[in-house]
Automatic annotation (TrEMBL):
It comes from Candidatus Gallitreponema excrementavium. GO terms for cellular component: cell envelope. This is Leucine-rich repeat protein. Gene3D superfamilies: Listeria-Bacteroides repeat domain (2.60.40.4270), Ribonuclease Inhibitor (3.80.10.10). InterPro entries: InlB-like_B-rpt, Listeria/Bacterioides_rpt_sf, LRR_5, LRR_dom_sf, Surface_bspA-like. PANTHER family: IG-LIKE DOMAIN-CONTAINING PROTEIN, SURFACE ANTIGEN. It is found in: Cell envelope. Signal peptide: none annotated. The lineage of its organism: Bacteria, Pseudomonadati, Spirochaetota, Spirochaetia, Spirochaetales. Its main location: other.
Amino acid sequence: MKKTPLLAIIILSVAVISCSRLIYDIETSVDSEFVTVSFYAGARGSFTGERYKNIQVKKNTYLNLNDYLPEIPEQSKNKWQFELWRDSTGETIENRYFVKESESFYAEYIKLCEVEFYNGEELYTKISGIRQNSYITRPEDPKGENENIHFIGWFDSPTGGKIWNFNDNAVIEDMKLYARWTAELHTLTLNAGDHGIFWNNKKEIKLLIPDGSVISFNPDNKENIPQGEDGWHFLQWKVTGTDTVVPWDSYVVKEDGNLTAHWEQDRYAVTLVAGTQGFYDNNGNRENSKTVEINAGETIDLFGDNYTPTCYSGWSVSQWIDNGTPVENPENYPVNKNARLTASYTRGSLFLYSAGKKLDHLDIGKNEKLEIDFRFESESVPPSEYIVMDSGIKWSTEGNESGYAEILFSADKLKLTVNGKTPSNGGEIIISANLNGIDSEPLILTVSDYYTIHSPEDLENILNSMGENETDIKIKGDNFFSDSFTYKDLEKVLEKYGKDFSVDLSEAGNIVFGDCNFSGNNSIKELILPDSLTEIDTGLFYGYRELEKVILPENLKVIGESAFAHSTIKEITLPESLEKIGACAFYECHNLQEVAIPGKVTSIGNVAFSGKGLQKITFYGKANNCSIGTSVFPLDIPIYVYNPENIPSGSPWKNYSLQRL
C-alpha cells in the first residue's frame, strides 16, 4: 500500500511528459519553413489505396517527383502507363522540381495498345505495350505455301480493307492485322531520270512485284532509289510521261507500270557576316549578318550589291574571310558547301576642302558661313577638330551661345554650315551623313543635361539638316525637351515633313505625352516609347494611320482606353509588367493578327480586342483570375489559355473558342 503514491507519481510524470511532447510536436509541425505538396493519382492510379497523398517539404529545396509515382491497379497495368506530372495550371513538370510554395501535381497517363497479326485464322505474332499514337516495326513476313504465292502486306480486315502502312499509320487502339497473298506478278520499270543512275550503272531497272504490294520509295530505301549526280538529290517518283507524283511509302502495284525519278539541285546556305564596320538592311532593321541559299555549283560575286554589307562612313570591304582564311576569288566564289564568310574592311582618311582647297585646320567666327566638302582619301588622317565616328561626323565647339550646328545635304556632297549658334560648353549634336555614297548610322540627336529644345522651331531647325532618305531618329537625354514641349508638338513637327519616321524615345526622360488624339495621316511609322512610361493615356495612338510597330517599355502597367483603337499597328509585344488593358484598347486594329497577353494581366475592358484582323490570342495567366468585359475578343478565332476545362461554365471566358495552351 505504501508504494501506491509513488506509482501514481510515476504514472502522472509520464503523462505530463507525453502531453508536453505532444504539444511540442503540434507546435513544431506547423512550421513556416515547410509547405504542403499534394500528389493526385487520377482515375488510373492510386497511392496505397488512396486517390492522392500529401507530404511536407522544406521550402527552397529540390524534390524528386519520381519518388512519388502512383501505383497502377493490376487490372490496368497492361492498358495504361504513367506519362508525366502537370501542375495546377496544366504546365508539364520536370521530375526534379524546386519547391518554393505549396503545390499540387496531377498524374497523367498514356494508353497502351496491343496489335495481333493473323495469317489466315491463326495468330502469327502479337506486339503488346504499344504507346498510343506511336508506330510499330513491321514483323518478319510470313512464308507462302510455295514459291508462286507472294505475301503482299498486312491489312486491317481479313477480306478487303486497307493495307497497313507501318511508316505512316500510328496505333491508336487495340487492333488486328491480317496477312494477304497473291499469285500474280507485275513488271515495274524504274527510270533513273536526267541526273541519276542505279547502283549497277544502269539508267533503268525492272522489278517483278506481287499484285497488291505496297512499295516504299523513301530516299532512305537505297534499293529502289538511284544515286544522284554531284549537286543533285532525289526528289520524287512520277508516273513516266505525266506529272502524277508517286507517294513514297504507299504506292500500290496493281498493274505493270513505268516510273521516272525526278531530281532537285542541292542548295547551300551561305551566311555573310557584316563584321564590325558594316551592316545589312532587312526591311529597315540593321542586322549583323544575312543568310542566302545558292544552288550547288553556282558562283557569286561577294562584292556585288546582293552580298556586300553597307559600310559605315569611311569604310569599305577589302576581303572576305572563310574560317580564318581569305577567300581566293571573291568575285567568282564557287558555292559547293554551307559556308560562313566574314567581311574584312579598310578605311580611308577624311579631308576637308573649301573652294577646292584642302584645309589643314578650320577657324570659324561668329555668324560666319563657310561651305565645306568632306572627302575620303588614303594618304593622311582627318584634322583633329573633326572626328569621324561610326555614327557620323562629331562637331564640337567651345562657343558661348546655345544653339545648333546645321548639316545640309546635296546629291553629290555634304555641306556644313555653322551660323554662330552652336551648343555652349561643348554640347554635341551628332548627325549621320552620306559620304562618298556610303550611308552612315541613323540620325542621332545628343545633348547634355543643360541643353534643351524649347520649341518646335528648335527641332525643325535640326530636321532641316536631314538627308531626303533619312527617317531614323533617336532622341536621348533627360532634359532634351523643356516642360512646355510635348509629344504632341513632336508629332506635329514630324508630320510636316511627310516621311515615315522611326522614332526612338527610350532614353528621352523629360517628355510630356498629354492628350494626343491624332487621327490624320500621321508620319510616325515605328516608335519606341520611353522606359520611364508606366501608363499609356486614353486614346494616345487612336486612329494612327501610318503607325505599324510600337515597342512598349518594360515597366508599363496600364494601357488606357482606346489607346491603339482604329490604328494601323501591325506588331506589338505586351511587356510582362502589364496589369490592365482598358476598354477598346486595340479595337478594330485590322492589321494586327496576333497578340500574346502576359500572365500579370488581371483586367481586360469591353471590346478591347474586338474587330477584324486578329487571328490568334494567347493568354499566359490564369483565366479565372482575370476579369474581362463584354465582347472582348472576336468570336471566330482561337483563344489559347491554360486548362480551359477548369474555367467555370458561367465565366465570360466560356463565350469564346478556348483552346489548350
